[in-house]
Design goal:
Elements lengths: L1 H46 L4 H36 L5
Helix pairs in contact: 1-2
């Protein structure tokens, strides 16, 4: 019974860590996309231009720029998580 409890606890910790890493890695792009959408929405409301491509393309470009800028940090974070999973795999 104790062994099953330890295994489920380790699995829950691993799942929590994976979700936290995913949220941290996605946050910069999502925040920039949300800010760009807000700014473009305000501009569209002021100018009364309601074309969907006017909001989609700048958001896409802003998120791609953040992805390129943050890619080294994202890869480092992903490699750290993968390394810790493989190092601790024997203990699970």
């Amino acid at each position: 019974m104790l062994l099953a409890l330890l295994d489920s606890s380790a699995a829950i910790d691993l799942a929590r860590e994976a979700l936290l890493v995913a949220v941290v890695m996605a946050a910069p792009m999502l925040i920039v996309g949300m800010a760009a959408g807000l700014i473009i929405g305000l501009i569209q409301a002021l100018t009364q231009i309601q074309d969907q491509t006017v909001s989609f393309v700048p958001k896409l470009l802003a998120m791609a720029a953040v992805l390129v800028a943050c890619l080294p940090w994202l890869m480092t974070r992903m490699l750290e998580f993968t390394r810790s999973v493989f190092e601790n795999a024997g203990g699970l």
